[in-house]
């Protein structure tokens, strides 16, 4: 084998190796691109299940008795608040909200679908749902299974444009309902608190903007 031929073979081998590395790099770029799309588009996020019995066991609640939101909230010692709008910016990264639970602010481009969730929905998707006029009934992750079941019963009384999910913002309430620029939060669950949640839904559903 001549020195010229050996050099040519080495050059050809180097070219093949470069093409292989370039091909691997292209595959990596495609895979990363797919991953970024799945994160920013909301792929893989939880979907409403209707409330699985192991997460929301069957439970009864007192019948409605107080149709005055302010009176029911006061009786239950719930916090009933109204806020200005803190904007409607779109963003899926780390977001800071000025109310807890959020009542406006940065949100995902994808709103959470109506329904009952076994797994918590991202706060940015919940906030976009608020912007679309939804009411979010939510509970602290540590509440009892019985209380979760009671909330499912309450939501199913009138489920239109309502979402039930665990809260993800460490809110200072056991249970709450939020709408665009409003929330009611309660630390005890009794007849008056359930009435407050019902009345809040009736007062603020479909009233975003």
Describe the structure.
The protein is α/β, with parallel strands linked by helices. 39% of the residues lie in helices and 12% in strands. The protein is built from five helices and six strands; from the N terminus they run ααββαβαβββα. It has helices at residues 3-41, 69-75, 123-131, 145-157, 191-204, and strands at 79-82, 115-116, 135-139, 162-166, 175-179, 182-186. Strands 1-6-5-3-4-2 form a six-stranded mixed beta sheet. A hairpin with a 2-residue loop joins strand 5 and strand 6. Helix 2 (69-75) packs antiparallel against helix 5 (191-204). It is elongated, with a radius of gyration of 25 Å.
The total count of helices amounts to 5
User: What average pLDDT do the residues reach?
Assistant: 85
Number of strands: 6
N to C succession of SSEs: HHEEHEHEEEH
Radius of gyration: 25 Å
Widest beta sheet: strand line-up: 1-6-5-3-4-2
- Give the percentage of residues in beta strands: 5-15%
Class computed from helices, strands and strand pairing: alpha/beta
How widely separated are the two ends?
81 Å
Sketch the major β-sheet. 6 strands, mixed
Percent of residues in helices? 25-40%
Q: What's the overall geometry?
A: elongated
List low-confidence stretches. Answer: 26-43
């Amino acid at each position: 084998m001549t020195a010229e031929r050996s050099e040519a073979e080495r050059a050809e081998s180097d070219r093949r190796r470069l093409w292989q590395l370039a091909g691997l790099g292209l595959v990596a770029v495609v895979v990363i691109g797919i991953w970024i799309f799945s994160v920013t588009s909301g792929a893989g996020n939880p979907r409403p299940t209707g409330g699985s019995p192991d997460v929301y066991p069957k439970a009864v609640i007192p019948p409605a008795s107080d149709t005055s939101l302010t009176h029911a909230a006061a009786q239950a010692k719930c916090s009933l608040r109204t806020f200005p709008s803190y904007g409607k910016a779109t963003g899926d990264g780390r977001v800071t909200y000025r109310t807890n639970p959020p009542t406006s602010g940065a949100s995902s481009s994808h709103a959470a679908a109506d329904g009952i969730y076994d797994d918590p929905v991202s706060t940015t998707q919940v906030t976009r749902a608020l912007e679309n006029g939804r009411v979010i009934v939510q509970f602290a992750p540590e509440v009892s299974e019985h209380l979760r079941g009671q909330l499912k019963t309450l939501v199913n009384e009138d489920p239109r444009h309502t979402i039930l999910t665990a809260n993800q913002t460490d809110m200072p309430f056991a249970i709450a309902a939020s709408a665009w620029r409003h929330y009611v939060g309660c630390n005890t669950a009794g007849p008056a608190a359930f009435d407050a949640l019902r009345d809040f839904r009736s007062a603020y559903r479909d009233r975003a903007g």
